[in-house]
Amino acid sequence: MSATTENIAGDEDGNRHAQDRPRSGLQIDPGDTPEQSAPKRRGRISQRLLIFHRWIAIIGQCIALLLVEYGLSYDLPLLPALILIAASIALNLLVIAQPRRPNQADDRTATVYLSFDILQLSALLYLTGGLQNPFAVLMLAPVTVAATMLGRQSVLIIVGLAIACLSALAVAYRPLPGPEGISWVMPPVYLAGFWTALALACFFISAYVYMIEREARRMSDALTATQMALIREQKVSALGALAAAAAHELGSPLSTIRMIAKEISKDIPKDSDLTEDIDLLISESDRCRTILTELSRTPEPASDNPFDTMPLPMIVEEIARIHIPGTISFAVEIDADFKVSTPSTYFGPEIQHGLGNILQNAGQFAGRKVTARLHWDTQSVTVTIHDDGPGFPPFLLDRLGEPYVSGRVQKGENMGLGVFIAQTLLEGLGADILFRNAPRGGAQVIIHWPRKAFEMRRPT
């Protein structure tokens, strides 16, 4: 027990020292909303990835220039073009040569690098026909990278710079020479259409990629929050098991101490100076025994699994006792054939948090009463939770279960993870969940399991 206490104390000291040390890298405040923490999550991109992509661009530009110049016999301004490519090579070598180059480029650094790539490509296009050059579509590459990895402000900067460069190339460029030195020019209408297509592509592709990536990150963050909730519950359960074990182990020596103290109290005179100390020792040992009795009330598991199997009505009542406020009336209604045995399952953290979040949400929005209607047969198990509150907002019904979707009126009061976590955990147990408004008013959540899935034992 002492070793465990020392470990816990050491962990706490380590945490305090870790908080005192300056932190570097990606930092997200757990209290941040998704919108507040999005720039922190997105504003990081691998330096190695940027360097690698630039090498690919350099190799491609060299091959294209040499192929057109010597393979197709076009008279290109080769020296200025090679100088521009050399500038890109110099930037890559400069970044590689940094003595303490971080693995991740921050938002500002990545924006500068991608802006350089756009300007370098624009200068090459200026020398080789402007928008008449089919390689002008490569302007979409840095825009897509920015939309995937950077924050909103940086994406707007990159997209704005790309469209500005495309606009300049539409009116100012060196005509692309033909094989015999004869320059040719696209019709103005075609050139305007090509510029419009590229500008719209920059805007819509960046917006689409940004939204898809943002949604994927929100989902990832929400799943991480779900995993953290389970980890916390498992730690609490482990701590409870440790307390019960400690109470069991300490019971015998404490009884010995109390017995010896009583024997001593019989052997010494009542007016002895030690009488008061012995009485205090006995009373404190009784107090310790009471505390240990409380700690050991949680029964030890009969197997390696720390969670007991409980019938469905008892599970619902136990979770409701914790999550339904005392001012709200709660009732369990059973609508089942009593010839069919009552379904039971492990009272684990998944069902505790899953049903707990649903019941807590119902209790918070209920007017006076929350009802849990239980139905089971040989094939299925259904729990219907109904409250007499205002119901779900109609515009949220189709989105309930998505992360960071909340019906709260006050901004920032709720991150909208409760229903998502509940749905994720319960679906992990094989359940299907339906959110709807009851015909007579109030919100209704229907949770349906195949009976085999509900009664499936956790793997040991």
What do you see in this structure?
The chain is an alpha+beta fold and 460 residues long. It folds into 3 domains: 37-226, no CATH class; 230-295; 309-454, 2-Layer Sandwich (Heat Shock Protein 90). It is built from 13 helices and 9 strands. The chain has a 5-stranded mixed β-sheet with strand order 4-6-7-9-8. A two-stranded antiparallel sheet has the order 1-2. Helix 3 (47-71) packs antiparallel against helix 4 (78-96), helix 4 (78-96) packs antiparallel against helix 5 and helix 5 packs antiparallel against helix 6 (140-149). The chain is elongated.
- What is the succession of H and E elements? HHEHHEHHHHHEHEEHEEHEEH
The radius of gyration is 34 Å
Sheet having the most strands: 5 strands, mixed
Unreliable stretches (pLDDT < 50, length at least 5) are 1-43, 299-307, 408-415
**Helix/strand class:** alpha+beta
Report helical residue fraction: 55-70%
Approximate shape: elongated
- The strands making up the biggest β-sheet line up spatially as 4-6-7-9-8
Span between termini: 26 Å
Count of domains:
3
Beta content comes to: 5-15%
Number of helices: 13
Provide a short characterization of the protein structure.
This protein has 460 residues and is α+β, with helices and mostly antiparallel strands. It has three domains: 37-226, no CATH class; 230-295; 309-454, Heat Shock Protein 90.
Index terms:
3 domains, elongated, 10% strand, Heat Shock Protein 90, five-stranded mixed sheet, two-stranded antiparallel ribbon, 13 helices, 460 residues
Layout: helices, strands, pairs:
Elements: H1 2-20, H2 34-42, E1 44-46, H3 47-71, H4 78-96, E2 104-106, H5 107-127, H6 140-149, H7 152-171, H8 188-267, H9 275-295, E3 309-311, H10 312-323, E4 329-334, E5 344-346, H11 349-365, E6 369-376, E7 380-387, H12 418-428, E8 432-437, E9 443-450, H13 451-454
Parallel strand pairs: 4-6
Antiparallel strand pairs: 1-2, 3-5, 6-7, 7-9, 8-9
